[in-house]
């Protein structure tokens, strides 16, 4: 993990330099970018392992940067939000951001979030060769490939997952037919927000359902257990 490249994107120089210096102090390499265009230029030279991104920037805002980045890569993104509403933060999750923190953030917490996302992103190589032939787990209309970190459809096409989506699916795969509370799922998949606690996990489940359920409005594989959480039904359950 030490020495991996982290891109810090913020239009305010003091803020990005503070974060960059702190991450460098703890063994990471950093590239500092003042916006989406600078990030894309940096990525042309070297792909970062993770992006720390300010949500509120003039011109191309952070949501646009997340949408563009996640449309092309599976690089983990941690959003930093100062004045964004809970709805903006939820939108960030919906389009693929992996985690978020309020600004000004505690740098030790940011470091912990960075390390956690990098561990999750490294999960595919760590899960290769699982005993019992569990590298392929059926999930509704798709199959979760634990070693490749993707969903695969019946035609063999890969559907990339964000680190948090993969963490959630793996949690369900490891606990079939067991109710998992929102609190437990958030612990497994990261990202907490006291203003949008329940919605954060619900947004991610909705995003996953759109990928695996024949009818996302009537989920058969990831069921809502009212008042308790969610349950993965490997064979599906109508209703």
Name the shape in a single word. Answer: globular
Strand order of the largest sheet: 2-1-3-4-5
What ranges have pLDDT less than 50 throughout 5 or more consecutive residues?
Answer: 124-133, 193-197
Rg over C-alpha atoms, rounded to the nearest angstrom: 18 Å
CATH hierarchy class name of the largest domain: Alpha Beta
> What is the percentage of strand-forming residues?
15-25%
Order of helices and strands: EHEHEHEHEHHEEEEHEHHEE
CATH-assigned homologous superfamily of the largest domain: Response regulator
Counting DSSP E segments of at least 2 residues, the number of strands comes to 12
The mean pLDDT is 83
Assembly type of the shown chains? single chain
Kindly report the CATH topology of the largest domain. Answer: Rossmann fold
Structural class: alpha/beta
The percent of residues in helical segments reads 40-55%
Quickly count the helices. Answer: 9
- The CATH level-2 architecture of the largest domain is identified as 3-Layer(aba) Sandwich
Termini, distance in Å?
44 Å
What is the count of distinct domains?
A: 2
Major β-sheet, in short? Answer: 5 strands, parallel
Organism: Phreatobacter oligotrophus
Domain OmpR/PhoB-type: 134-234
GO molecular function: phosphorelay response regulator activity; transcription cis-regulatory region binding
Modified residues (4-aspartylphosphate): 54
């Amino acid at each position: 993990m030490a020495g991996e490249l982290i891109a810090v994107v913020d239009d305010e120089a003091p803020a990005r330099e503070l974060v960059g210096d702190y991450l460098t102090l703890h063994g990471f390499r950093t590239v500092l970018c003042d916006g989406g265009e600078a990030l894309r230029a940096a990525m042309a030279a070297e792909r970062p392992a993770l992006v720390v991104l300010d949500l509120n920037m003039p011109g191309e805002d952070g949501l646009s940067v997340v949408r563009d980045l996640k449309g092309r890569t599976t690089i983990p993104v941690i959003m930093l939000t100062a004045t964004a509403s809970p709805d903006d933060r939820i939108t960030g999750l919906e389009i693929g951001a992996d985690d978020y923190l309020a600004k000004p953030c505690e740098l030790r917490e940011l470091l912990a979030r960075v390390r956690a996302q990098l561990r999750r992103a490294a999960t595919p190589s760590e899960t290769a060769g699982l005993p019992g032939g569990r590298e392929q787990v059926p999930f509704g209309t798709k199959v979760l490939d634990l070693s490749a970190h993707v969903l695969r459809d019946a035609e063999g096409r890969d559907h990339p997952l964000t680190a948090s989506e993969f963490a959630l699916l793996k949690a369900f795969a490891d606990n079939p037919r067991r109710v998992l509370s929102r609190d437990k799922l958030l612990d497994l998949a990261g990202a907490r927000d006291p203003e949008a606690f329940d919605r954060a996990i619900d947004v991610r489940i909705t995003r996953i359902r759109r990928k695996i359920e024949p009818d996302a409005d009537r989920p058969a594989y990831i069921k809502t257990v009212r008042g308790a959480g969610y349950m993965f039904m490997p064979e599906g359950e109508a209703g």
